[in-house]
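Thread: quick sanity check before group meeting

JM: Hey all, I'm pulling together slides for Thursday and realized we never actually wrote out the predicted structure for the chain we discussed last week. Dropping the sequence here so it's in one place. If anyone has concerns about the input, flag it before I start.
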Amino acid sequence: MVFKMKSVSTLAVLTLASAIATSSHRDEKYSLRWTSPPDRVSYRLDLKFELNADVEGMDKSFGITGNVGATRIKSYPDGSYTMRFGTKMSEMNKELAPDAKESVYEATYDKQGNEINRKEIDRTPNSHLSSFMAFDPPTSKVAIGEVWTVNTSATPPDETTASFGAAQLAGIEMVGGTKCFRVEQVFRAAASDAKPSLSTVWVRVSDGVVFKMQWSGTFLQLNVQGATVTSKATLKLLEG
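JM (edit): ok, ran it. Output follows.
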């Protein structure tokens, strides 16, 4: 995924709302990259869904839980490394994703934490969740208030794949006793009438590991007989 820096006006275009933290180091630039990651990082994923219409055999409100993990599978002499990522839903609604199972991909990073290669191992019907729940930091240092944009789709876009997004470094704050960067993101799916999906990401200052994420958005016709599905998700670090 390639990030390009753009002006703050990008937020007005995408209606990304962000409360910028007041800081005496406003002009200082920070690296949000993943440096010296742990060998294993794992998260709990909690999703809540609301349908805007009655669908036979489905509750209008239901939840899904899952696990997201990243494991270092190889390190190289030049300091680069390869991580394997897996997302597995422990309780998946079969109408929502009838063939859902673990979604796996591998990514290789250079010693600065820049992704240089990605390979899909097992892309499943619930892989679109990875598009919206993803966080990829900017390729260069950014100051509080700066914005960058990204094409988040690693495959040809469809109605459930995020195809364009913007992010802003909104500030630095403590989360559960841990110092974190707060990043506000917005994504749009390829469908012309798609509503934006919003997420807040807290990134651990010490090493660039995502510490927590909250996300909300609308999926269009996600195998639910034409009903709109509004989703809210929370991702919390368990290990790493």
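AS: nice. Residues 76 and 82 are 9 Å apart (CA to CA). The helical segments are 9-14, 128-133.
JM: adding both to the slides.
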